Amino acid sequence: MSGNFREWMYKRIDEETRNFSEEFKTGVDQFMAFANSQPLAQSNGGKFFCPCSVCKNDKFLPGTRIWNHLYSRGFMPDYYVWYKHGEEINMDIGTSYVDISGNEEVGNVVEDRYVDMVNDAFRYNVSFDDNYHQDGSYQNVEEPVRNYSKKFYNLLEGAKNPLYDGCREGHSQLSLAARLMQNKADHNMSEKLVDSFCEILSEYLPEGNQSTGSHYETEKLMRNLGLPYHTIDVCINNCMIFWKDDEKENKCLFCGAKRWKPKDDRRRSKVPYSRMWYLPIGDRLKRMYQSEKTAAAMRWHAEHQSKEGEMCHPSDAAEWRYFQAHTKKTL
After folding, report:
1. Residue 89 pLDDT exceeds 50
2. Stretch (H or E) spanning 203
3. CA distance 65 to 49
4. Where is the Transposase-associated domain (predicted)?
5. Residue 318 gets which letter from DSSP?
6. End-to-end alpha-carbon separation of the chain, Å?
7. What is the pTM of this model?
8. Which residues pair with residue 230 across a beta bridge?
9. For the chain, which terminus, N or C, has the lower number of CB atoms within 10 Å?
10. Spatial distance between the Cα atoms of 121 and 291, rounded to a whole number of angstroms
C-alpha cells in the first residue's frame, strides 16, 4: 500500500519531541474503538487479536493489554486493512479503502462485476469463526493470514488489469478465466480442450496479453476465489461413485469398469477415468450470504412485509404459516 493510507500507524514517535505523536495516539484510540465495537470483542468479553509487531494477530488478548502492546511495540508491518478485526476488504489497488470513520471512500473505485466478485469472495474470508472456537481455545490456522491479502491483491489485479493494451473496458484476465470455466461447465469441455483454447487465445491475442496459458493456470486463478469443492471418483459409465464404504474399490461394483487409467511413466499417482466435483451445501450458502446482491434475496422471506389483503408470494398466505408449523412438528 502507498500514499497517506493510515500512515499514523507507523509514525509512533514524534521526531521533534521524541514522544508518542498525537496522530498515533488518536489513531490507536480509533482502532481500539473500532475493534471493541465488533462482534468478536463484544461476544468474548473485550478480547480480540493483538496486531502489535510481536503478537502479529496470533494472540487473543484483552483490550487493555493490546493497548499497552501497541504503545510499547507498535503495529505489525503492513496491517493497513484491519481484516482480522472485522473491517471488510473492499478496495481498489492503491490507496482506496473502506473508511470506518464514515468518510467517503478514498481513491477511485470502478464498478466491475468481476471486482465485485473478488470483494464478495474475500469479504469474510478471514473471519474469527475460522480461528476462534466456541470452547474459547484459540488455534492457529495453517495458512498465514498474510496469504489471504496476497491472494486478494493478486485476484483484484487480475480483475482490473486489461487483458491487453487497448482492449475493451472490462475485459481482464479474471473475466476471461471466468468465461472459460463457465463454458467448460456448460459444455462439458475436457481439460485438454481448455488447454487448447488457452493456447489459441495466448497466440492470437496481442503480444504481452494477460490470458492464462492452460487449464491448470485458469483453475488456479479461479480457485483463489475460495469456494471449496470436493472431487469424487466416478465410474466411467456413471454407475456409481467411489465414496464412503466404496472409496477403496478399484472397479465398478455394477458394470465392472476399471476405476484407474493405466500407469504412465510420466505420472506416479493414480488417475481415475472419471470424477465429479461436489460443492458442499454449507459453503454454497455461505457464499450466497457473502454477496450483497444474493444475500438480500436470501433474507427476503424474513425481512419482507406484505401489504394487508395483498399476496405477492405464497409465503403471505395463511396456508403457508400452517405448512411451516406442520413441518416443524414433523421434523
Report:
1. yes
2. helix 191-204
3. 11
4. 6-87
5. H
6. 52
7. 0.44
8. 278
9. C
10. 8
